């Protein structure tokens, strides 16, 4: 945002090296740092704003403390004013927001002077409500001197009903999200006709987050937007902002469906960054199958947040799960209370699922400096202007290098030095990364993977488009090559009806309700306090079976609740406040069948395949674990219905001769395959833009469809998300890294750092570490004889 370039207020700015030095003192603390990367400061490169930017806008920017733009900001503005769709993909805090705001505000001012009154409009899309609210604050600060020519307003699920009509009629800069565009604006486009008719720019912020199934949905929503705009005579220019990414123009064009120019040379200055890789120590405890237990990343990160708060270092700790964010904040508050009773109130959790007023209060407290430390999910990762942070702790690798740098970049946003610490979880990928720093610091960030042609994604959007305006033959090209094949299927299912030259939506229900673009698959489950009826928040339908099952511990703003009942029919989880000394983790079982083999390549006698599968999954039990140590206290059975998923998978088979060559005896076969499956799932995010929770796996000593020992890894989304396909194309490197990760682990028989999985439905039994290494060695010997799978 524009504020990224405002010099920080005078105050104490602790040296990141000094802060890390203090954190590493104490018994065994120094040995936990496996690597420290020092990124030197970088000077900035200025340029001049294009002459077409109105002087009032330039003066307003100067009043905010920015005399001249960085070079990439000026180039972005120049392309935007010329009518080119453009993506600016530069580092965190490089002022990307100002790069698109300057031309947008200038054009809106031009339009406000037009004789028709409404003039020009612009639409801003962000992946989170928090980011849209943050942008609204920033725009208000910047445009205050510009008078009434800029009328910016947030339009999302939190916007009061009485304000929505004003936004539709009078706002010329509307800030919203893809969900609201999909469910609200496009289905109701006649009420938005004057806004859409004048639409000049569509800003897509943090566009690298639109990947996988979510990105594929958003790509189709944007095609629907372009079609409706064309109906009203407009053809908006797309302005996209992204964290540093591989091939940003290709990804942006795939997302929007239009040619996009890329700006990747970062002209902004950067302070020194000290980036430490931190591995928690092994404990004396033993987990499943007697495996050694490493101290949890949650406990370690809570300690670091506590120590940083005591030093007065403003910190955000990023956590992968909502429960983890609550737990880290709770532990830090308890420990700080022992040091200084004024400090616990300056630590909080921030996550999705909070009520709107709770989120807004936390955002205000963070901006004001009232909060010293925050444990947050990725809801706070994206672009929010959190000025003045000194340090970021990342509790567990977030799944991609792009996301890691995005989170680390939250600190030092005003040009001073910054400290970033990645705390490894007890997980194959995290363990691999903290001992192979080149995989983080010497590799480019990932390309953004999305597949708008996924039929599970495309079909409901064709229905939604037909409900907005009847679909005609010329429209089909807009939605992609898979459209023509899908239309007869939609007619056969009586979702669409062809009349004369167009297809119509004929059902009474809303077509936009056919799909949840975030892939949640159903109505969110409301979490309700049983005694009072008070709504605490919501949980995505897809996560309900694993997070709010009967007996689950649910954390909300530092309070613990036990789930007494999960009513799937009414989408309600009833909870009561409690203080159990444990957390809960769901366990599931999975079966898989092959529907179609799309591609198959030989690896010696082995076979590497890619195709369509059907997965049947059922949550069967949950574990109770001690809060700090993660030690298993017990397991309870659950009776929940199975779920079926049709998706894409990569799988490999081996023959009896190969098993004999690898000295994998029949009694060790199940354990070898199971261990290889777990480890390969853990390592895959290094090669595909995914998270281990986006993918699943199954290993079978004799699969009924292949009649051979088989290991499957599949996408956890209907129709696939591109992850398994990427695994197929990089299989030799992916499985070689898997073998290396298992072999390099210091444990004797297998542990969570190499072959154990936190979501294994079989209690991590059987597993055979040594047999898995021999099996993968033999498999990869065959792979070396073959050319790589074609991209």
TrEMBL record:
- Keyword Hydrolase: yes or no? yes
Keyword annotations? ATP-binding, Helicase, Hydrolase, Nucleotide-binding
Question: Sorted alphabetically, which CDD domains does this protein's record hold?
Answer: DEXHc_Hrq1-like (cd17923), SF2_C_Hrq (cd18797)
Instruction: Tell me the domain of life.
Output: Bacteria
Pfam families noted in UniProt: DEAD, Helicase_C, MZB, WHD_HRQ1
UniProt entry tagged with the keyword ATP-binding: yes
Q: Where is this region: Disordered?
A: 1-22
- Which InterPro entries does the record cross-reference, listed alphabetically? DEAD/DEAH_box_helicase_dom, Helicase_ATP-bd, Helicase_C-like, Helicase_put_actinobac, HRQ1_WHD, MZB, P-loop_NTPase
Q: What is this protein called?
A: Helicase
Q: What is the organism field in this record? A: Streptomyces antimycoticus
């Amino acid at each position: 945002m524009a504020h990224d370039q405002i010099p920080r207020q005078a105050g104490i700015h602790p040296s990141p090296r000094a802060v890390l030095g203090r954190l590493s003192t104490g018994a065994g603390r120094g040995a936990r740092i496996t690597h420290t990367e020092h990124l030197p400061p970088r000077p900035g490169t200025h340029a001049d704003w294009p002459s077409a930017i109105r002087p009032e806008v330039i003066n307003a920017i100067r009043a905010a403390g920015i005399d001249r733009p960085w070079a990439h900001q000026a180039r972005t503005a120049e392309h935007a004013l010329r009518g080119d769709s453009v993506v600016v993909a530069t580092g965190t805090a490089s002022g990307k927001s100002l790069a698109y705001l300057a031309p947008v505000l200038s054009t809106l001012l031009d339009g406000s002077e037009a004789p028709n009154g409404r003039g020009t409009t612009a639409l801003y899309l962000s992946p989170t409500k928090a980011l849209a609210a943050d942008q609204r604050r920033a725009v208000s600060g910047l445009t205050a001197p510009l008078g009434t020519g800029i009328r910016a307003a947030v339009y999302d699920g939190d916007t009061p009903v009485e304000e929505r009509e004003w936004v539709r009629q009078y706002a010329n800069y509307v800030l919203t999200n893809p969900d609201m565009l999909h469910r609200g604006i496009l289905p109701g486009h006649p009420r938005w006709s004057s806004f859409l008719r004048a639409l000049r720019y569509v800003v897509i912020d943090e566009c690298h987050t639109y990947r996988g199934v979510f990105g594929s949905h958003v790509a189709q929503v944007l095609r629907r937007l372009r079609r409706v705009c064309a109906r009203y005579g407009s053809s908006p220019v797309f302005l996209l902002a992204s964290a540093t990414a591989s091939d940003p123009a290709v990804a942006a064009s795939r997302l929007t469906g239009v040619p996009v120019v890329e700006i990747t040379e970062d002209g902004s200055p950067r302070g020194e960054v000290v980036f430490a890789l931190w591995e928690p120590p092994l404990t004396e405890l033993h987990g499943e199958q007697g495996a050694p237990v490493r101290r949890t990343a949650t406990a370690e990160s809570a300690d670091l947040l506590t120590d940083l708060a005591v030093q007065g270092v403003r910190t955000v700790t990023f956590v992968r799960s909502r429960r983890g964010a609550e737990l880290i904040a709770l532990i830090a508050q308890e420990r700080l209370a022992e040091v200084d009773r004024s400090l616990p109130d300056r630590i909080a959790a921030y996550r999705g699922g909070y009520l709107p007023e709770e989120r807004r209060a936390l955002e205000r407290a963070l901006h004001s400096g009232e909060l010293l430390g925050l444990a947050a999910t990725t809801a706070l990762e994206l672009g929010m202007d959190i000025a003045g942070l000194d340090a970021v702790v990342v509790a567990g690798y977030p799944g991609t290098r792009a996301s890691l740098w995005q989170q680390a970049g939250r600190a030092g946003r005003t040009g001073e030095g910054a400290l970033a610490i990645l705390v490894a979880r007890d997980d194959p990928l995290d363990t691999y990364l903290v001992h192979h720093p080149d995989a983080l610091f010497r590799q480019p960030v990932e390309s953004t993977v999305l597949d708008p042609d996924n039929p599970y994604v495309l079909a409901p959007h064709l229905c939604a488009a037909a409900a907005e305006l009847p679909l005609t033959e010329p429209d089909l090209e807009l939605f992609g090559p898979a459209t023509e094949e899908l239309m007869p299927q939609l007619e056969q299912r009586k979702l669409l009806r062809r009349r004369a030259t167009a297809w119509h939506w004929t059902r009474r229900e809303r077509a936009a309700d056919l799909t949840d673009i975030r892939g949640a698959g159903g109505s969110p489950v409301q979490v309700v306090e049983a005694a009072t009826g008070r709504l605490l928040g919501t949980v995505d339908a897809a996560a309900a079976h694993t997070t709010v099952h009967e007996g689950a511990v649910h954390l909300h703003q530092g309070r613990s609740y036990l789930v007494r009942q999960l009513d799937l029919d009414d989408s309600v989880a009833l909870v009561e406040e409690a203080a159990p000394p444990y957390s809960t983790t769901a366990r599931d079982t999975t079966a898989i069948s092959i529907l179609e083999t799309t591609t198959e390549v030989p690896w010696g006698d082995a076979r590497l395949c890619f195709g369509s599968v059907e997965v049947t999954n059922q949550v069967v039990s949950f574990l109770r674990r001690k809060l700090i140590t993660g030690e298993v206290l017990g397991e309870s059975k659950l009776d929940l219905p199975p779920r079926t998923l049709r998706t894409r998978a990569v799988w490999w088979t081996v023959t009896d001769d190969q098993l004999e060559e690898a000295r994998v005896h029949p009694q060790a076969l199940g354990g070898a395959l199971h261990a290889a499956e777990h480890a390969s799932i853990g390592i895959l995010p290094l090669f595909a833009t995914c998270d281990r929770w986006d993918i699943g796996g199954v290993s079978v000593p004799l699969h009924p469809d292949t009649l051979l020992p088989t290991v499957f890894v599949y996408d956890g989304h209907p129709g696939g998300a591109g992850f398994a396909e990427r695994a197929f194309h990089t299989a030799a490197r992916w499985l070689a890294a898997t073998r290396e990760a298992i072999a390099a682990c210091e444990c004797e028989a297998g542990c969570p750092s190499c072959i154990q999985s936190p979501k294994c439905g079989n209690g991590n039994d059987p597993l055979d570490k040594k047999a898995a290494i021999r099996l993968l060695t033999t498999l990869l010997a065959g792979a070396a004889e073959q050319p790589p799978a074609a991209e």
